[in-house]
Specification:
The complex is a heterodimer of chains A (333) and B (547).
Chain A (H helix, E strand, L loop, with lengths): L14 H11 L1 H20 L5 H26 L7 H18 L4 H26 L3 H19 L9 H6 L3 E2 L1 E5 H18 L2 H11 L1 H6 L4 H27 L9 H11 L12 H19 L4 H28 L1
Antiparallel strand pairs in A: 1-2
Helix pairs in contact in A: 2-13, 3-8, 3-9, 3-11, 3-12, 3-13, 4-5, 4-6, 4-11, 5-6, 5-11, 9-11, 12-13, 13-14
Chain B lengths: L9 E10 L2 E11 L4 E5 L6 H8 L7 E6 L2 E2 L5 H6 L2 E4 L11 H7 L4 H10 L16 H14 L4 E5 L7 H13 L6 E5 L3 H7 L2 E6 L2 E7 L4 H10 L11 H4 L11 E8 L3 E8 L4 E6 L5 H8 L7 E6 L2 E2 L5 H6 L2 E4 L3 H4 L6 H13 L7 H15 L14 H13 L5 E5 L7 H16 L3 E5 L4 H6 L2 E6 L2 E7 L5 H8 L10 H18 L29
The chains are: A mainly alpha (333), B alpha/beta (547).
Chain lengths: 333, 547
């Protein structure tokens, strides 16, 4: 703490300072992007035929988990955690697939309905956390069984159908062959939902309650309402993830994939503090791509897929440890 | 007294400790003779607790020498200090709430037989060793802490405000037991805010002021006055009085008070607080620690609801259910503990904008342009050094405090509740805060300022009220509110030096009430079952950590 009292005139920041500030503030995400670029170059080197189809496949494979990671990131930033996100995705996926099979003409209404369902489910999770004062991790773990059970009530086995336009939305390229449609969908969703939200009072309040609940309370933030809202937004992204599952597979599966824990891994790798208050949603998205790309590289190298899972875990620990080492050194300097 | 009393059991010389720019101890020394009860005195922030923590190895001094029985030693941890015969009983209970008493004793390797002996001596007969620590009333926990310390027969026993949470009957037993330690070859270092206890058990007193040892006094009848004088020192204000321009200000007789408090009560600490705060004035609040001032400010800031009494804002009664209600009514709160007030990992902009946006905000997007203007204006007004604006935790303490004030100034402030806003910040920033508070008052705002630094009252305030035992016991005009007067009022002493017998009794009665109050922190509902020791306090206070 070298800064002492105010230096009057010199506090105006120049443009270069602003750039430096921005770089410093987003150092983690930028580092991840650099790592991703290296990884893509490495992929191209070991698999010279890796091209547009590979990128497209990567984008569609990543989409559900990326949406889950965004939802998880928002809840964790607000100081909570949701362990039912995989189950919510399964439930919304089977509901949309089952309904679209029965009423193929109402696909748009069904999509909207499922998104609302996601918001309601998220709000229920958040509401239970706020009202019962049971820790987030316990409430959402319990609710993960509830939502998974509901999914099985809707469809006992994988089935249903998806509207053609929905399937097309996440398949193939758009404009140029290097640009996967799924990636554009992802960018648009985040740009339409999260970026405006971040600029509202709710966005600020979500960061505030995650950073220091007492300070937020004393500053007049409605802590409970903000928490429920954060969970509701998570539910919305989980529903989007569920829909993207239906879209990419063409059916709904009532069995939750490993999305819950993978989303937690992705946000940690993506620079979101599990203690809350710190991080964003872009880091987690990049982290999801990295984790998926490592998995495909292992396949290209003919490494046992089980070993690839082990490698993912090791990378997670390695990167996070590296990050905290850098932070410790910076704090000491 | 025998020859041995001239020997020194524990000696500390030239002990200093700084935290960043804040000097906690400048040059403290302390010499304790065997067989004496030695009082450590000093106003809030004089460095008593820091010194005790250094002696018990909880923190490391920057400089200084500590010798036990003439042999110099470095103490690296409380466990090491314990082995070396230095044991401390702190203000807060040190038992693990989820272990029973027996396991707690095993944890510190306390022998059972002596422990039993001491609990009986201290008036806690029939203590059930298998009861969970969290189910034991606070007062009993304090006794257990003390008995545990006595059981390992320390050379030097340090008691830091240990009587603060005890009811009168137990305090008496504790003082009696401590008194019986005199004359042996062991010693006690005793810290208390209550002069009466000092006079009752202590042989000598070392007085600290602003981190320095300023004198050692033999405690006899009438030495209280000498101690108070030492605690104050030559209180020539080294800072320019800011309140000169305010000293003459007159509140119009028919003005409506901004805040009218009538008999506010909360829990058992705040009993009956009544006062008025007028627009355009800075009203000082002075109290020893734990006299109910925290509760009073929490009520005014909307964090707590009063159990009794009436609160009027601008003449009309209000009931705050949430800090947002208080903020809407124009009452904003500046905390002493910046960790409580700031989003440490977030930027200066977000910290200033948080309540401001929360106040004007609907759920729509924040008007960024307007926000930036307001935030920049506030940064300018408070001269905040924004070189490290990305994360508030990288700012110095003084600049952090400016941010907590700036967030309220940003939105235009009508009533500011400042709870010790200058605690632990450097002198230049303090001066800036004083000027700012005066400016606010001049602009028509009302400022309520609790301060633990008595001299601040004459620097910034127009009037001062003194709280003792949860009641407003005195109101002083700024001209009369010099440090001796405030300190006497804070100790609830009469202005004449000697305390007549009946006044002393009254003070004991009052402090006893405060003692009971201390044991009734918010706690677990299941702990209210009556215990064998007749002390009504529930259990271990759970920190009010909202996270």
């Amino acid at each position: 703490m070298t800064a002492t009292t105010g230096s009057l005139g010199g506090s105006r920041s120049r443009p270069t300072d602003a750039v430096m500030d921005w770089l410093r503030h987003n150092a983690w995400t930028l580092g991840l992007v650099a790592f991703l670029v290296l990884l893509l170059a490495f992929t191209k080197a070991i698999q010279p035929s890796y091209g547009p189809p590979g990128i497209q496949g990567l984008a569609s494979a990543v989409l559900p988990l990326a949406l889950a990671a965004v939802g998880q990131a928002i809840v964790v930033i607000s100081g909570g955690i949701d362990l039912s996100i995989g189950s919510i995705m399964a439930l919304t996926s089977v509901v949309s697939a089952a309904l679209m099979k029965t009423y193929p003409d109402l696909a748009i209404a069904i999509v909207i309905g499922v998104l609302v369902l996601g918001i309601v489910i998220g709000a229920v999770n958040g509401g239970l956390v706020v009202v019962t004062r049971v820790p987030d991790i316990v409430v959402t773990l319990a609710m993960s069984f509830v939502w998974a059970g509901c999914a099985l009530l809707v469809l006992k086995t994988p089935g249903g159908a998806a509207a053609v336009w929905l399937k097309d939305l996440v398949k193939g390229p758009i404009l140029v062959e290097w640009l996967p449609r799924a990636a554009v969908v992802m960018v648009v969703l985040v740009a339409v939902i999260w970026i405006p939200l971040r600029r509202t009072r709710l966005g600020l309040s979500i960061y505030a309650i995650g950073s220091n609940q007492l300070a937020a309370f004393r500053s007049g933030v409605a802590v409970g309402r903000t928490k429920i809202s954060a969970y509701a937004v998570m539910g919305l992204f989980a529903a989007l993830g569920g829909l993207s599952l239906t879209a990419s597979t063409g059916i709904g599966s009532p069995v939750p994939g490993g999305y819950t824990l993978q989303s937690v891994a992705a946000i940690v790798l993506g620079g979101v503090s599990l203690a809350g208050g710190r991080g964003g949603v872009f880091g987690p998205i990049v982290a999801v791509i990295i984790l998926q790309l490592i998995r495909s590289d292992m396949t290209f190298l003919n490494v046992n897929t089980n070993l690839a899972t082990v490698a993912n875990g090791v990378i997670l620990i390695g990167v996070v440890m590296f990050g905290s080492l850098i932070q410790m050194r910076r704090a000491r300097a | 007294m025998t020859l041995t009393t001239t020997d020194v059991l524990l000696e500390a010389t030239g002990v200093s400790k700084t935290y960043g720019a804040v000097v906690a101890l400048k040059s403290a020394s302390l010499a304790v003779r065997p067989g004496e009860v030695h009082a450590l005195m000093g106003a809030n922030g004089a460095g008593k607790s820091t010194l005790v923590k250094i002696l018990t190895g909880a923190i490391h001094p920057d400089t200084g020498r500590i010798a036990v029985r003439g042999r110099e030693r470095e103490v690296h941890s409380p466990a090491e200090a314990r082995r070396g015969g230095l044991v401390s009983v702190y203000q807060e209970p040190a038992l693990i709430p989820d272990l029973d008493i027996r396991d707690n004793l095993r944890l510190t390797q306390t022998p059972l037989e002596p422990f039993r002996h001491w609990t009986n001596e201290l008036g806690l007969e029939g203590l059930d060793l298998s009861s969970m620590a969290r189910r034991v009333p606070l007062a009993s926990l304090r006794i257990i802490d003390l008995a545990r310390a006595l059981a390992i027969e320390p050379d030097v026993l340090m008691l830091d405000e240990m009587t603060a949470a005890l009811p009168a009957n137990l305090t008496e037993r504790v003082l009696e037991v401590i008194g019986r330690q005199r004359g042996g070859d062991r010693s006690v270092i005793f810290i208390s805010h209550r002069m009466i206890e000092i006079a009752a058990v202590c042989d000598r007193a070392t007085v600290l002021r602003e981190g320095e040892t300023v004198g050692v006094v033999d405690v006899t009848a009438g030495s209280e006055e000498q101690i108070v004088e030492l605690m104050l020192g030559q209180s020539v204000a080294s800072m320019t009085a800011v309140s000169d321009r305010a000293a003459s200000r007159q509140v119009a007789a028919d003005a409506t008070p901004r805040i009218t408090a009538r008999g506010l009560a909360h829990g058992t600490k705040l009993q009956d607080a009544s006062f008025e705060l007028y627009p355009g004035e800075v009203l000082g609040v002075v109290a020893l620690e734990g006299q109910g001032q925290d509760e009073l400010f929490d009520i005014l800031a909307g964090s707590e609801r009063p159990a009794g009494g009436e609160l009027l804002i601008d003449g009309s009664p209000v009931a705050f259910h949430h800090p947002a209600d208080a903020i809407r009514a124009g009452l904003v709160y500046v905390a002493a503990d910046r960790a409580e007030a700031l989003l440490m990992q977030r930027s200066v902009r977000e910290n200033i904008a948080l309540p401001f946006s929360a106040r004007i905000g609907r759920w729509g997007p924040i008007n960024l342009g307007k926000e930036r203007t307001v935030v920049d204006g506030a940064i300018e007004t408070l001269q905040i050094d924004t070189r490290a604006k990305g994360e508030v935790r990288r700012l110095s303490g003084g600049n952090q405090q400016k941010v907590t004030i700036a967030r309220w100034v940003a939105g235009g402030v009508r009533t500011m509740l400042c709870f010790d806003p200058t605690r632990g910040i450097d002198i230049r920033t303090k001066q800036q805060v004083y000027v700012l508070l005066r400016d606010l008052a001049e602009a028509g705002a009302a400022v309520l300022l609790y301060t633990s630094e008595l001299k601040e009252v004459q620097l910034v305030c127009d009037r001062a009220i003194v709280i003792f035992g949860g009641r407003v016991v005195a109101e002083l005009d700024v001209a009369d509110a010099d440090e001796p007067a405030l300190l006497r009022a804070a100790y609830n002493l009469r202005s004449d030096a000697m305390m007549p017998e009946h006044v002393a009794a009254e003070t004991v009665a009052l402090t006893a009430e405060v003692g009971v109050a201390g044991s009734a922190e918010p706690s677990f509902p299941e702990t209210t079952e009556p215990s064998a020791s007749e002390t009504p306090g529930p259990g271990i206070p759970e920190p009010e950590d909202a996270r």
